[in-house]
Predict the 3D structure of the following.
Amino acid sequence: MRIQDQENYRQEYYNEALRYMQNAEEELKSAKKEGKYYQDDKYVKTACGTAYNGVLKALDGLFLLRGFKKPKNRRSIEFYRDHLAKFDKKMLNELNTAYNVLHLDGYYDGITSVKIIQGGFDVAYDIIERIKPASA
């Protein structure tokens, strides 16, 4: 893959992942923070699901740049873990945190702790920043 093609893919996936995160941040505002907790778990769940999908979008871009073929069927957390284990253990830890906080605790369980949800969002941004193009 040519360097310009790599940069274009990087830009495309980075922008898309950030768009997911911006949407998630907007949704989280609707949850109305009061003290240490969000007041409406419906919005927290939606925000966490959207943020987690932003993480997956960034990882899809990273895998494409690394030469992994995109599977035709739905990807599981094991798919992402297996691929990251091959080249980036730190990002694997970040993925596990994003998965646990955003996908399981936030999206499925509806946890409303501001600190915990913000920690998940911080990790999501850390992962997304790893694919940031040089021009951004």
About this structure: Residues 3-129 form a domain with the Four Helix Bundle (Hemerythrin (Met), subunit A) fold (CATH 1.20.120.330). The beta strands are 33-34, 37-38. Residues 84 and 92 are 6 Å apart (CA to CA).
